[in-house]
Design a protein that fits this description.
The complex is a heterodimer of chains A (181) and B (184). Chain A is mainly alpha-helical and 181 residues long. Chain A has eight helices and two strands, in the order ααααααββαα. A two-stranded antiparallel ribbon of chain A has the order 1-2. In chain A, helix 1 packs antiparallel against helix 8 and helix 4 packs across helix 5. Classes of the chains: A mainly alpha (181), B alpha+beta (184).
């Protein structure tokens, strides 16, 4: 059932956010969980909005739902491939429209766009990478909170933005389930 | 037995709006009694089992049986404004089928590539900020003009539509739609 699946995504997003709030972990781990909470919230929004034809659902999964940074990925893919179906192009516009109405829109986009990579010159939450500014190889755990703030945005602000976003998605899901507007 | 919705006057379709059967007929219930049936704007019949959160209301008891869409114009204006502020902005918008439970918008987006099926809407469920289902027909101006010439039904709707955003293109589309409607 679509609503049960949506609820499951939201439960997981809440759990990821809870892990991201935890102060017992290294900062890199907290940042990873914040990204995961943001990612799942955006996916939940996308699932809620999506009403495209069944024929496009495989592409919806490939270019959005199964992506690490779903908004960034959808934006990049739609921009790069005009042959992608209209439903995906319009979905991107609708998600952007919805996000633009929320506080912390910029932070959410920024967190969404932080994609860990195996490229040694790219920032990763989990693998050592080359820090161009320092000119040295670092483990993610070496980075201070300030460095993570510079990369992903202020942690307190990101937590608040994700919290608000999740609450808005959850409220909308509940209203939709009851049929009220 | 459907639940008694009491005095709230809120109605829900018994069938998801995009369930294939709903393309033929959607039954609206009030207090367990069927009071009206209609499908003002049947969506494309595709396989999709997600229920539409569309809500409609009826007038008080003296108007029982009369079903009206209640989408506030201000909400549509907000949506159009938000679309006009995107990176690839909407420059012209026309609200059509105001009686439909979804918001139907025809939007000119100059950045869009040519589309020979621009008359086909894309449907969205209600979201966080915009709480109504949306049927969006969009394209660049040339694609939408061609769509109006291909689709007399769309032309009729646009001819009766309300311009919500206009830099000259929306009014020109309405004029073209009127011409096509007269000729049809």
């Amino acid at each position: 059932m679509a609503d049960e699946l949506l609820k499951a995504w939201l439960r997981q997003a809440h759990a990821d956010l809870q892990a991201g709030r935890s102060e017992g972990s290294a900062e890199c781990h907290r940042r990873y969980w914040l990204q995961q909470a943001c990612e799942k919230s955006i996916k939940a929004l996308g699932m809620m909005l999506w009403n495209g034809p069944a024929a496009d659902e495989g592409l919806f999964r490939a270019h959005f739902l199964h992506s690490h940074s779903p908004l960034q990925r959808l934006e990049a893919d739609v921009g790069a491939d005009p042959a992608l179906p209209r439903s995906l192009q319009r979905l991107l516009r609708q998600i952007e429209t919805e996000l633009s109405a929320l506080d912390g829109d910029g932070l959410l986009r920024r967190v969404d766009g932080t994609t860990p990579t195996t490229d040694p010159t790219g920032v990763s939450y989990r693998y050592p990478f080359h820090d161009a500014a320092k000119g040295e190889d670092v483990a993610p755990t070496d980075w201070t909170a300030t460095e993570w703030d510079a990369y992903q945005g202020n942690a307190t602000g990101a937590i608040a933005a994700i919290e608000r976003f999740l609450r808005a998605v959850e409220n909308r899901r509940k209203r939709g389930a009851r049929g009220a507007s | 037995m459907p639940p008694d919705l009491g005095p709230s006057l809120r109605l829900r379709p018994q069938l998801p709006a995009r369930f294939p059967a709903a393309a033929l007929r959607t039954r609206w219930v009030f207090g367990g009694n069927v009071i009206a049936s209609r499908r003002a704007s049947p969506p494309v019949a595709v396989s999709c089992n997600r229920p539409s959160p569309a809500v409609i209301r009826v007038q008080p008891s003296t108007h029982r049986g009369m079903v009206l869409g209640m989408i506030p114009r201000a909400k549509v204006e907000e949506l159009v404004k938000a679309h006009a502020e995107l990176d690839e902005p909407t420059t012209n918008a026309i609200w059509i089928k105001p009686e439909a439970p979804e918001v139907w918008l025809v939007e000119i987006i100059p950045a869009m590539t040519d589309d020979d099926k621009a008359e086909e809407p894309t449907y969205f469920n209600a979201g966080i900020a915009f709480r109504f289902p949306l049927a969006l027909i969009s394209g660049n101006r040339a694609s939408l003009e061609a769509a109006l010439r291909r689709s007399p039904e769309l032309a009729r709707d646009v001819a009766k539509g309300t311009v919500m955003l206009d830099d000259g293109g929306a009014q020109a589309l309405v004029e073209l739609a009127r011409e096509v409607s007269r000729a049809a």
